[in-house]
Amino acid sequence: MTEAHNEEAQLPPPLPEGGLRIIPLGGLGAIGRNMTVFEYDGKLLVVDCGVLFPDVEQPGVDLILPDFGPILDRLDDIQAIVLTHGHEDHIGAVPYLLAHKADIPLVGSQFTLALVEAKLAERRIQPYTLTVREGGRERLGPFECEFFAVNHSIPDALAVAIRTPAGLVLHTGDFKMDQLPLDGRITDLAGFARLGAEGVDLLLSDSTNAEIPGFVTPEREIGPVLDSIFAKARGRIIVASFASHVHRVQQVFDSALEHGRKVALIGRSMVRNMGIARDLGLLNIPAGLVVGLDEATSMPPEQIVLMSTGSQGEPMSALGRMASGDHRHITIAPGDTVVLASSLVPGNETSVYRVINRLARAGAVVVHKDVAKVHVSGHAPAGELLYLLNVVRPSNLMPVHGEWRHLRAHARLGIESGVAPDRVVLCEDGDVVDLVEGRASLVGRVKSRYVYVDGLAVGDVSESLLTERRILGDGGFIATTVVVDSVTGKVVAGPTVSAKGFSEDAAAFNAVIPLVTEALNRAAADGITDPHQLQQIVRRTVGRWVNDAYRRRPMIVPTVVEV
Amino acid sequence: MTEAHNEEAQLPPPLPEGGLRIIPLGGLGAIGRNMTVFEYDGKLLVVDCGVLFPDVEQPGVDLILPDFGPILDRLDDIQAIVLTHGHEDHIGAVPYLLAHKADIPLVGSQFTLALVEAKLAERRIQPYTLTVREGGRERLGPFECEFFAVNHSIPDALAVAIRTPAGLVLHTGDFKMDQLPLDGRITDLAGFARLGAEGVDLLLSDSTNAEIPGFVTPEREIGPVLDSIFAKARGRIIVASFASHVHRVQQVFDSALEHGRKVALIGRSMVRNMGIARDLGLLNIPAGLVVGLDEATSMPPEQIVLMSTGSQGEPMSALGRMASGDHRHITIAPGDTVVLASSLVPGNETSVYRVINRLARAGAVVVHKDVAKVHVSGHAPAGELLYLLNVVRPSNLMPVHGEWRHLRAHARLGIESGVAPDRVVLCEDGDVVDLVEGRASLVGRVKSRYVYVDGLAVGDVSESLLTERRILGDGGFIATTVVVDSVTGKVVAGPTVSAKGFSEDAAAFNAVIPLVTEALNRAAADGITDPHQLQQIVRRTVGRWVNDAYRRRPMIVPTVVEV
């Protein structure tokens, strides 16, 4: 295995003529912000441009973007952005990239483009788009692209094969290999076999479930489980799922029809996405089945299903508001059955279980994935990845879309299936891989920070700022303010001490005031008048005291003002 | 179902003569800080006294204790603290209760008491103890206690039946019903049947897995899985588990012996607990199997197993330090196999997966519960709970040990198995339940806050303080300092603005200074000189500006000093 272990940026050498360069700017090392840049003959092709959702280590952050730094001065070279499917971790950063240059063409399937266009419309960006479908081919500059159907937890997902004189590269996008999918659109293993026969020089493939042995349960086994829940429910049914999981919503529609219930869609993205899916013929809505929320709330509970967002415990989502009793129209009551028909995205466990407990507290029966088979993953586990590897027989493998544990597990599968160990390129965001004369190898690194979106601003939140937030979040702060004479350094007012997030017991922590006064007196006696030095003295005095008295580490905020 | 829905404390009426009062002070509404107080004829019996570990909603907190408030003025009435087993969520708060009165007798099995004594020794408390075992009976004041073996993820766990003239109560403690446990010590279903025949008036039973259908996998199925991992491993093996899971450690010892490896124990609690287990004959250590860490590090990697703490991703644990490269003696290297033979306690997912990724990054193969059957739960799922309910046939059921979702699921199982719905008491910490004339009912509430331990202090961290921490942790703060003349209210120095955790871009946020100056000038013109009022003006000015300019919500910290 070729492995990236260089922590320091080591800029790559110039790309040899006839070589293809691959730079993952996101998606390797974390599940999210997927983005891969391909370079051939001075031209660039981008595959996916998604966001990563923050975890507890990124407090207060709304979104994490790929670092566009390495391509910002080459935007004119970008031939297109190919979008494999419409999930946020693949399309969510498109508006931020188009903010730099609005006319980069977007290439994707009908449903994918419809979702990204809806997102761009909110920012008044009208993109240049090129709709493609499975079986299609497009020449995008020097990149000859061929598209293949893949089965995933959103309709109309594509893999893309990229041909250049440097060789044939297959990027799977996200996929699984449900052999009996609801829409009959299976992952095109036969097409991949044809590519394999032609000779795939490099395979980039989804690693999300590479650690998990075996095969994914067919999506259609969810239907009967939903049916039995619907059969048992005596009152209202509320189902939450991802707002883009058209097939899951279809199954809810089918069960509702079967059990004589109407469905109301709840949540802005749910309503919008299902409208798009219906218009494109991807969602079959029997006449009269869907009703508005107003009508739904006036109907007897046993005749209604609410199809909602919020399956990941998001507090501001429709389900999150219902759970905390803050939804304007819906109050959870005994007799309600709530189904969370979704996976549990790692990092969301605490919020999801909080929502479940609140729903249970309000009297609802809550069915979730620990309790019944109401969700299956959208990503191929190890057994399916081996099928793909054995059919494609790639010369080089680059695991993508995963945390380090997933990428490494996928690398092992590659080697077990016969890829030469020195042709498995295990790398992470910012690594630069060149495919030259049929061999992929790591040649350097470009800068690839996490770029944080927080409120309206992008990029003013750094890692050291997040460290400050973590310190403040864990221990609060103690602020000490003192006014000194600018000439003599003598204390004119203060010191005063105030604290937030540190301790309720102000009488106890005011005990530090005499210590600060004493330290300042000593400083004055020593002729120290520089406010910066005085600030350091205050900081040390308070810091030492709080450690001895409390064994806590609040942020110490000394302010010395000169008058 | 009798259900607690009163948010406001509604003090209970006096306990009727001949009645038994039950007050859960912890363990109902969250998994942890288990503690139940029984009262009869003016005397109290406490069952368990544990801690709860904080989640992201309790930043900076070390531990959460039960609220001892309702019994603090009645410590002399406490006949004993019965400890069902030695897990932290059942014994961890004992030192904090004994800090109020050191001579309350502790009653428990040999292993349980040994663990709690080791914990108390660190605080130089030597408790009064009474060792009991399954089959034994003890009269503790008016409480006639009988002890029963239960099978759990720690040896020597007990259930306790409490007889008073008010009736027979069975408290299961934590249990599962592995029918072929490694030590042959099964949950005493036959004994419970005898109690059932006698007539159990109230059952308090473990709800942790009440949502999960079916039965737990026998513990002995882990052995072969470990064996196959050991057989495949070519280099060093590191196994992490709970430091009290003696049977899991025994299995690791057995596999090590089988595969010709020596074992070194790593982590203070692992070494201590396994020493206790060996001394009590609960852990069988073949001669020469266990070596010191020094010896282990000098041996060839294929001859060694390191048995470590840190299975929950704790950054300061032995495994946590190895993962981050901070362990003094052990450096993870390619060829290492790391096994996390443990459950994933909800709330710990992010840290556990971070440790796994770091280990994978350093080259280790990591086997965890998603990948192989290296752990089974210690708590009975629904299928086993039904066995218990059907054997005991309690007149009243009070689900304990669980979040709300678990308690409710357990309540449903109770009703399905034939407990009268109005005899199922679904309640939470602080609720007061009286058993009078064979009927258990909710009669009121006592105060039951979360009591936070943070560093050396207990109880000075409140919910509103945690809210401050969350605000600071999500958005940092902007501090504005201004010195004004105490007579005229005119600005003498400042305003200055500083920020932590808010934005790197100081030039941008200094834009607020002229706005603050302007607001203060206006205040001066209006004759406002009160520093508190001026502070509010500064707060409003900065708050409005930051919302408009950033759409963020940092804490606004205005300081107005008079000279």
Entry keywords:
homodimer, 563 residues, alpha/beta, Metallo-beta-lactamase, Chain A, Rossmann fold, Ubiquitin-like (UB roll), eight-stranded mixed β-sheet, 17 helices, endonuclease (chains A, B), exonuclease (chains A, B), calcium (chains A, B), RNase_J_2 (chains A, B)
Describe this protein's structure.
Chains A, B: This is Ribonuclease J. Chains A, B: Residues 32-226 form the Metallo-beta-lactamase domain. The structure is a homodimer of 563-residue chains. The radius of gyration of chain A is 28 Å and the shape is globular. Chain A has three domains: 19-214 and 377-444, Ribonuclease Z/Hydroxyacylglutathione hydrolase-like (Metallo-beta-lactamase, Chain A, 4-Layer Sandwich); 219-367, Rossmann fold (3-Layer(aba) Sandwich); 463-562, Ubiquitin-like (UB roll), CATH 3.10.20.580. The model of chain A has no long low-confidence stretch (mean pLDDT 94). Chain A is 30% helix and 24% strand. Chain A has 17 helices and 27 strands. In chain A, strand 12, helix 5 and strand 13 form a beta-alpha-beta unit. The first copy, chain A, is α/β, with parallel strands linked by helices. In chain A, strands 8-7-6-4-3-2-21-22 form an eight-stranded mixed β-sheet. In chain A, strands 9-10-11-12-13-19 form a six-stranded mixed β-sheet. A five-stranded parallel β-sheet of chain A has the order 15-16-14-17-18, with helices on both faces. At the A-B interface, helix 11, helix 13, helix 14, strand 25 and strand 26 of A face helix 11, helix 13, helix 14, strand 25 and strand 26 of B.
